[in-house]
Amino acid sequence: MSIRDLADFHHPVSTLFAEIKSKIDYEPFALSKEQVEHFEEYGYVTNVKIYDEEQVDILRAELDKIQAPDHPARELFYEFHGNHSTNPDTVLFHSLGHWRISEAFHDALWNPAFTKPASQLLGDKPVRFWHDQLFCKPAGHGGVVAWHQDYSYWIRTVPMQHLTCWIGLDDASTENGCLNYVPSSHRWGLLKRLELGGEMDALFEQLDEEQRAQIKPVPMELKKGHACFHHPLMVHGSYENKSERSRRAMVLNVFADGTISDTDDIMLRGTDIRVPKGQPLNTKYFPLIYPVN
């Protein structure tokens, strides 16, 4: 049986999200001036509605399908970790590449409720897709995502003009392991990359005394379908889920058009995707999802 790779389609393939016919159709989804200013000052903006109830339900149903070990398109994942936690007593499902497999997750890249804010936070530039992620913590024994900076995993691409959007597929709270930010930590510079599913506070060992004094995490409690956007140097992580509710989330990572490769090695772990050093990331795996003109 032939498997359809949705990376071949650089446009929506369903009617799940609002159709865009002209630039003016993006305007209902724009962030306010105050939201953009908050991002610039603190490194994040939160509580942005990305999906309605029906869209969340469809994405959750698709998530159940693609998590199946015998899914026929399993080979298209970039990475698939049934448990990415280093603690044997907890579980953290983590995957990358599902945009190639599921129509709903594929079309989420072109959702104007996501792409319009992304362009604004990147300085009103055209936006290209970088990669997606799923982070799922089951009720009762969900694992941590250790404190980290996203760009520490992305230094093979330059310049640093990247952005992350974290979207809840469940209500996210302190009790079930919601995302946490250290406000204004995007001003600390690049720190050493560590294991995502490892020791929660290991990153803080790199900080100086002044930076340690600024560690005042703020939980991003969100209703399902709502999102946070954050700077590529924002220090963030999430604690265990010991509650009776699951905590499922999807992440969309993007960069401004014009970002180039800084390596001749693979671009994305688990793949053979390469872009020669010095060349722009504009192949089929990095589609343009928001053109300014």
Automatic annotation (TrEMBL):
Keyword Signal attached: no
Cofactor(s) essential for the protein: Fe(2+)
Keywords from the named record: Dioxygenase, Oxidoreductase
Keyword Secreted listed: no
Domain of life per record: Bacteria
Matches recorded under Pfam families: PhyH
GO molecular function: dioxygenase activity
UniProt name for this protein: Phytanoyl-CoA dioxygenase family protein
Biological source species: Agaribacter flavus
